[in-house]
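Aim 2, interim progress. The first record below pairs a target sequence with its structure tokens.
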Amino acid sequence: MSRFALQLILAVVVGLIGAALLHLIIVLLLPEFSEKDAYTRVLAKGEMHRFYQLGSVADRTGLGMDDPYLPVAVCAYDISEGPVRLAAANNGLPFWSLAVFDASSNEIFSINDRTSAGGALNVVIATPVQLTALRRSLPEPVSQSIMVETTAAQGYVVLRSLAPQPSYEELASQFLSEASCAPFEWRSRSRF
């Protein structure tokens, strides 16, 4: 065999061994990285259907405020048993925004105080079947709600409020702490 052929065989063998090792390392590290996605971090904050305000420093979940002028709260939800309603009264904040994500961190919906009715947060997240049932009778609590349709049963919500000056910090914190992310208790003749 020629010297060139031996070098070629050696290069192929080294390449295959290197690729196998790299593949093995990736497979072994996958659980470590998969537990650090946004949905898992929001779930680690506590129980579902409750807003949790993020601190200025990242906590054990790795979540924290990126901007000191934009206080943030997060809520994990599950609509497999019924719709979820997000609500908060606008108490004079200059700006708030809401983004709804599925468990894979794909944005489903977003809104802010400028595009909401009267500047208040009033959103219902539901599956297509649940929304059809809600629209048939349209109960009073959700007659003015913005309906968000999704086929993904689980996800999370990110609610931000603007505090451009220190005098707004208490208002922004109050807005986030009074915001609700709860299953919408509504009974009808048909089940969701």
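The second target in this work package is listed in the same format:
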Amino acid sequence: MRRILAATLVAIVALPLVLPVLPAFAQSPDLIFRRSTVFRLLSPNDKLATYGIDDPQVEGVACHFTVPEKGGWAGAFGLAEEFSEASLACRQIGPIRITGRSSQGDVVFREGRSFFFKRVQIVRGCDARRNVLVYMIYSDKLIDGSPQNSTSTVPIMPWGQQTEVVRCGDFIS
């Protein structure tokens, strides 16, 4: 009971610090589909959900990720702590244009995965030597993160009649 009270107090104190950051990650992923993995008779099933997002700073790149979603009554009311597993695939879907400068490991997407302090993140980097964008998905938690992750790469290639190719190292350092 004391842990719950302490966690609630921390959440109330931390909320004003977190709210100014939220609009930067307001991109909502597109749900592509869900598949049930565990049948539950009287409550929602556990599922795997696949989502799609566009990189907000790199036009021409889309990422798809799959995450587990807990069912049961706790999952139905958003109180279940989700699993840390996730898979990721990112691909070039058009001519690549990088719209701004960024740093290695900048956040492309972030979403909460539990009622308290657990989130899944997709971050972007650049392998300048190979001219490849590198994306990684992982989950973290305020106290103890998870080493489970998935990585996807997008080699920057000419698209259609395009002859010049952008160099990711010119924009991501």
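Residues 74 and 125 are 36 Å apart (CA to CA). This observation will shape the mutagenesis plan for the next reporting period.
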